[in-house]
Design brief:
There is one protein chain. This protein has a 6-stranded antiparallel beta sheet with strand order 1-2-6-5-4-3. It has a two-stranded antiparallel sheet with strand order 7-8. The chain is built from 15 helices and 8 strands. Among the domains are: 93 residues, 2-Layer Sandwich (TATA-Binding Protein); 115 residues, Hypothetical protein, domain 2 (Endonuclease III, domain 1). Helix 4 crosses helix 15, helix 11 crosses helix 12 and helix 13 crosses helix 15. The protein is an alpha+beta fold and 317 residues long. Helices cover 40% and strands 13% of the residues.
């Protein structure tokens, strides 16, 4: 993305990125959106994505829109230029996907069906880690509710003419100021709130892992109390563009992979890793393509043998 195509429109800055390949905003950015009510990530009626980021240079709102073979990026706020600089990474422009050669029919068809999907690299570690911690051992409904409540209470208004009121995620210092009763009101138990606070206390060190190999980044993340293998992988996939880190510890995910790739509806983590071992360096890529295949109905529904987890309300406990 060249500064030569920068333009100033009032308080907004715009750039055009020409990726030279198909780009799917929906599929690439989808995992970064924490539900349809995410105050930091909105998709408007035109299909444009609005993302409230906290850059090193300050808060920013980024709007991304596909225009033919180009992506029009518009940003507002003190961190606008930094947000625009990160657009190619955010949309998978640096994703090393060329070495991925799927052999399983499901993966072959998924790659054909979703040519615009790439592994994104947001370069925002804390903004990927905190919601991942909130998702530990709870339903997505519980985790997304907590994220909304906390951002509305401690995030700041996103700059720019957002389509709905949006919030920039809190700084590390702002997370540290959340009192115990507000964690409770958000439905976050003490184990998860303690893990978030442990992470934000070393936020600078975590952000520095963007400049080291992914294995080293995982090692540093897992030094944080309350951040295990699953949480580290969920973070690295989004913040670092780590295409080889699988979310081990998710009973639904391993079952989906086992069903799609081997017809085994109740596979465990070990079996999932066996099935994607044929794609070194791209194991998460294979898993994500399975998820996209299932979402598109390319794989028959998986049998169920147990009831879904019930949504709990920690605020009443």
């Amino acid at each position: 993305m060249s500064p030569a195509v920068d333009a100033v429109r009032g308080q907004a800055r715009t750039r055009v990125w020409v990726p030279g390949r198909p780009v799917s905003l929906e599929h690439t950015l989808g995992p970064m959106r924490r539900g349809t009510g995410d105050p930091a990530h909105v998709v408007d009626a035109t299909g444009a994505a609005w993302i409230a980021h906290r850059q090193r240079t300050g808060p920013a709102t980024l709007r991304l829109e596909r225009c033919g073979g180009e992506v029009l990026a518009t940003a507002w706020g003190p961190g606008a230029d930094e947000a625009l600089d990160g657009v190619p990474d955010l949309l998978g422009g640096t994703d090393p996907h060329d070495g991925f050669a799927p052999r399983h029919p499901v993966l072959v068809e998924a790659l054909r069906r979703f040519p615009g999907w790439r592994v994104p690299r947001s370069r925002r570690v804390l903004e990927a880690l905190v919601p991942a911690i909130l998702e530990q051992k709870v339903t997505s409904t519980e985790a997304r509710r907590a994220w909304r409540v906390l951002l509305h209470g401690y995030g700041e208004p996103a700059p720019g003419p957002t389509p709905v009121p949006m919030r920039v995620p809190p700084t590390a210092e702002q997370w540290l100021r959340v009192p115990s009763w507000d964690w409770h009101k958000a439905g976050v138990d003490s184990k998860r709130s303690t893990a978030v606070l442990a992470a934000v206390r070393v936020a600078a060190r975590l952000e520095a892992t963007l400049d080291v190999p992914h294995d080293e980044a995982e090692r540093v993340l897992r030094l944080v109390p309350g951040t295990g293998r699953w949480t580290a992988a969920e973070t690295l996939q989004r913040s670092h563009g780590a295409a080889d880190f699988v979310s081990v510890g998710d009973i639904h995910l391993c079952g989906m992979v086992g069903w799609a790739l081997a017809g085994e509806p109740w596979a465990d983590d070990e079996r999932m890793l066996e099935l994607v071992a044929a794609y070194p360096g791209h194991r998460f890529r294979a898993v994500r393509l399975v998820e996209l295949s299932i979402g598109a109905g390319l794989v028959p529904p998986r049998p169920r043998r147990a009831p879904r987890y019930a949504v709990r309300d920690f605020r009443a406990m």
